Structure prediction request, 263 residues.
Amino acid sequence: MTVSPPDPAPRSDSAHPDTTPMISLESVDKSFGDLHVLKHIDLQVSRGQVVVVLGPSGSGKSTLCRTINRLEAIDSGTIRIDGDLLPEEGRPLAALRAEVGMVFQSFNLFAHKTILDNVTLAPIKVRGQSKAKAQARAIELLERVGIADQKDKFPSQLSGGQQQRVAIARALAMDPKVMLFDEPTSALDPEMVNEVLDVMVSLAKEGMTMLVVTHEMGFARKAADRVIFMADGAIVEDSDPESFFTAPKSDRAKDFLGKILGH
Ligand SMILES: Nc1ncnc2c1ncn2[C@@H]1O[C@H](COP(=O)(O)OP(=O)(O)OP(=O)(O)O)[C@@H](O)[C@H]1O
Ligand SMILES: [Mg+2]
Prediction:
């Protein structure tokens, strides 16, 4: 008698089981010349997890983000997104970039395109969507981030907070599996920080897998499942936010928290 194996866990949107980490780095090393910027990084982020990355300037936070969507190549180790190795180049790399949305400190919108065109460009060019479909989805996303009424303006006509919300909508238009944020609010005037953080908190609640470099402790406390503290290219602490903020273990983290919370 033959016994058939049990059915694999049902999946709606992925070829991989739910237990596959959404982001996985194993023994990742990266140097710029003599400068060893990422030192043997091991990091697994599970589906739907929100990870805040903290650390002093120059500790490698931006480089970590940039390697995850291959804006920077790594020297050794492996990086997988939803179980798939990062492709080196060509169309597979373009497809991977579409799955990993990234939002930077500087909003990086196309200055000579309208807000609507900024959001529809990649879905049309990379995903081959029709203009009508891409526009309908873009308007939905712009409504979600609260700026649909600005869709026909150009980026320079928007406030920094509005531009950053467009940048988030633009990344979401590709239906990414993962969103990376590198200090998304640090170029903003203080009164605009919360309108961007609110969008990020709601994304987190909806189950997006997120890696967020930020010094916004309120966001870390409210939305993060996990805090990673980096120093000198290594992950020095990896814990839940409450433990990290109330009982950091390393001297580096204590020193860092003293500086950012001390004033
Ligand atoms: N393209 C590059 N070429 C040479 N060195 C680089 C390059 N990018 C980053 N570095 C160096 O790598 C180190 C880590 O930089 P990274 O930008 O990742 O730090 P960070 O933690 O994001 O710092 P910050 O908080 O200031 O943004 C720094 O010493 C930086 O000068
Ligand atoms: Mg940085």
